[in-house]
Every structure is written in structure tokens, then in C-alpha cells.
Design goal:
Length: 382
């Protein structure tokens, strides 16, 4: 089934601009207020198997976000620094062709059906065993070799500050049961938050764990390190992993470990200590068990000492995967002709826990027919 952007939306490529005090307006071909981007919309305007791909730009009058419907990816996110200058804090490639290459790293994408890892790509549901595509050694990572990050999403609605995208995943897609109708809505809010709302329903019991895989550097994409960033995570526990980065099932205390970020701590302060878990992940690549009250809650804060940019992470999810860019190395064809090096970005992926379908003590990721999957995350900048 094809998922095409409507002609009126496809024409836009969403180069728009409004005052933050004006109400959102439907995008049209007449919306031509220039916005300075770090990428060219022309490098993202292609057709893939008959589906239209474009670059859409959201603005609130202060910040801008560029998003493509290929993989529902955040391509750039420009927010003011301490001097009021716009800084692009999201890493990415300069053209769509680079995002389509194998091993591109999930930059900025919505990953699914199941974000993070499932052991051996297997799980049992309602008495039936399912085998998924393997793409991370013996395991499945972020939905398999052709997950949501590789799909052209349909543009359902677009305004100057919001973009709603839909992908319908057929029964058996990558081995997952049930037809899943997934919708992601990006909204750039008046307080410089990038609000991401996820919704999904299914016609058959399945597992769902959607998240965004943006790589951040609050000193600006292309800056050499994130080790000087101060990180706070509101978590007393984390899930230790085995040698293939699958959770052991234990929830371990962060007390007296390099995983204690309950107070602002430089990411690089303890990253190279001889800790068994850090050695397995070559740094941080672990799920933190959040101290959660119902509803949207502040769960993490990151600050760059160079730009003064502070990012708050708010979510309704029970887990947060912190990845410190350990496997980044000489990433070519990035925006601005830059090359991304080792640990030059971090990810904070709001989620349910890795391998939950095989871990009965973890929060369930099962979605039943007639139930709605709905969750929300905000990356807010100040």
C-alpha cells in the first residue's frame, strides 16, 4: 500500500515562517517566508517507489525544526544559545541519499515497531512464537533491517508549527504480528519544546515500543564532543546488560556507580572507568528506570557549558535509553560538510524497556486490538 503526501503538502517542502503569537496556519504554496536552514530542501525532494518525500520546516518564531517524512526523521533543530544565536543541536546528513545507505545510524528517525533490542529477535505472544529480522548480531534492533526508519510516512496534516505523519505497517511486517496503524505528530511549542506525540492501534495483538533516535550535541552539530555536557537523569535504577547488550532482567541501583546521574554530572567524568557494564557498551548504552509519576514528567536535563543551551526531557514513558555515541567514528557527508567523530553526540530515547516481550517483570509492551497506544515526549530548550 502506498503512503503518499498530498499534492498540496508536497509542493510546500514547508519553508514557512510565522510570528510565535499568530495561530498555526495550514501550509500552502504561498508560504514563502525564508528560513535559513542547515540543509537544502532540494536534497530531500525525491520519490521512493512512487511515494513523495519532502523536507518540512516548523517554526515558532524563535526556533526551527526541519523534518522529513522519510523515516519521520528530525533533520535539524535550531534553538537559541545564551547569546540569542541559533544553534543546530541535532546531528544528521546533508541529503536524503545518505540516510538511505546501510548502517546510517538511525539519525533522527522514528524507530519501530520496537525501539531498542529484542533478544534473538524472538518473542512469544498468545501462545505463538514470532521470529523477527536480525540486524544487531544475534538480536533485533529498532525494528529490523527495514524498520519504520526506512519507510516513507504519509503526511496527514501540516501547519507552520506542527506536522502529523502516518505509517501503516502490514501484518507480518519484519515478522511482527498484526496490522499496525501508527501516527507521530511533531509540534514546535511556544516555549521552544519539540513535542512528539505517538499513537497506534492494531487489529491483532502485537508489541509496540516507538521512540525517536535523535543525536544531540548542545554545543552544535559538528562540535567534537559531548563529554563536557552536564547530564541529570531522575532514575534510581538501570537495567544491566549481557555481552550482546540485552538486559539481564535485573534492575540495579545507580548508587555508587558510574550510572548515578541524579545530580548534574559531566558525561565524560566516569565514562572510561573500569566498570563491567561500561566496558560492555563501550560507554553508556543503557536503559534507565525512571522515577515516574502519572502523566508527562521531567526525567532528564542536559546542559552545554559552551553555548549555555539546556535541554529538558519530559515523557510519559517508564524508561530512558542513554547512548553516549560510543560507536560513532568518522561519520561522513554530515550537514555543513562536517565529519562526526567518536562521542560527538548523545541520545536520550524515551521508551519502554529493551527486550520487554521476553521479560515478564518489565512493563508490558503488548498492544491489544481496540486499545490505543498513546504516549508523549517533549525535548524542551532554554
Amino acid at each position: 500500500m502506498k503512503h503518499k503526501a498530498s499534492k498540496s503538502l508536497a509542493v510546500v517542502a514547508a519553508i514557512v515562517g510565522i510570528s510565535a503569537c499568530n495561530p498555526p496556519q495550514e501550509q500552502s504554496a504561498q508560504d514563502t517566508t525564508p528560513i535559513e536552514l542547515t540543509v537544502s530542501p532540494a536534497d530531500f525532494a525525491v520519490e521512493i517507489d512512487g511515494d513523495s518525500v519532502q523536507l518540512y520546516t516548523l517554526t515558532n518564531g524563535t526556533a526551527t525544526a526541519a523534518i522529513t517524512n522519510y523515516g519521520a526523521r528530525i533533520i535539524s533543530l535550531q534553538v537559541p544559545d545564551k547569546n540569542g544565536e541559533l544553534v543546530d543541536v541535532v546531528l544528521g546528513y546533508k541529503d536524503l541519499a545518505s540516510y538511505r545507505k546501510p548502517g546510517e545510524g538511525f539519525y533522527g528517525a522514528i524507530v519501530g515497531r520496537y525501539g531498542n533490542r529484542i533478544a534473538k529477535g524472538q518473542f512469544e505472544l498468545e501462545g505463538q512464537q514470532y521470529q523477527l529480522e536480525l540486524n544487531d548480531g544475534p538480536n533485533t534492533l529498532h525494528g529490523g533491517t527495514n524498520g519504520f526508519f526506512m519507510k516513507v510516512w504519509e503526511v496527514k496534516h501540516a501547519t507552520d508549527s506542527s506536522l502529523e505523519l502516518q505509517y501503516i505497517s502490514p501484518d507480518g511486517d519484519a515478522g511482527y504480528p498484526g496490522k499496525l496503524d501508527a501516527t507521530v505528530t511533531y509540534t514546535l511549542t511556544s516555549d521552544n519544546g519539540l513535542d512528539i506525540t505517538y499513537r497506534a492501534n492494531t487489529d491483532k495483538a502485537t508489541v509496540v515500543n516507538l521512540t525517536n533516535h535523535a543525536y544531540f550535541n548542545l554545543s552544535g552539530e559538528g562540535d567534537s564532543t559531548i563529554l563536557d555536557h552536564l547530564l541529570t537523569i531522575r532514575a534510581d535504577g538501570y537495567t544491566p546488560v549481557d555481552e550482546t547488550l540485552i538486559p539481564t532482567g535485573e534492575i540495579a541501583s545507580v548508587e555508587n556507580t558510574p550510572f548515578d546521574f541524579r545530580q548534574p554530572t559531566a558525561i565524560g567524568k566516569r565514562i572510561d572507568t573500569a566498570d563491567a557494564q561500561l566496558l560492555l557498551g563501550k560507554g553508556y548504552d543503557h536503559n534507565f528506570v525512571l522515577k515516574k509519576d502519572p502523566g508527562l514528567q521531567l526525567v532528564a536535563t542536559v546542559e552545554s557549558p559552551k553555548t549555555g543551551i539546556i535541554m529538558d526531557v519530559l515523557t510519559e514513558e517508564p524508561g530512558l535509553q542513554f547512548y553516549s555515541g560510543n560507536f560513532m567514528d568518522n561519520v561522513q557527508n554530515a550537514k555543513g560538510g562536517k565529519t562526526y567523530g567518536h562521542r560527538s553526540a548523545f541520545c536520550l530515547e524515551t521508551q519502554h524497556f529493551p527486550d520487554s516481550p521476553n521479560q515478564p517483570d518489565f512493563p508490558s509492551t503488548v498492544l491489544e486490538p481496540k486499545a490505543e497506544y498513546r504516549t508523549r515526549t517533549v525535548y524542551r530548550f532554554r
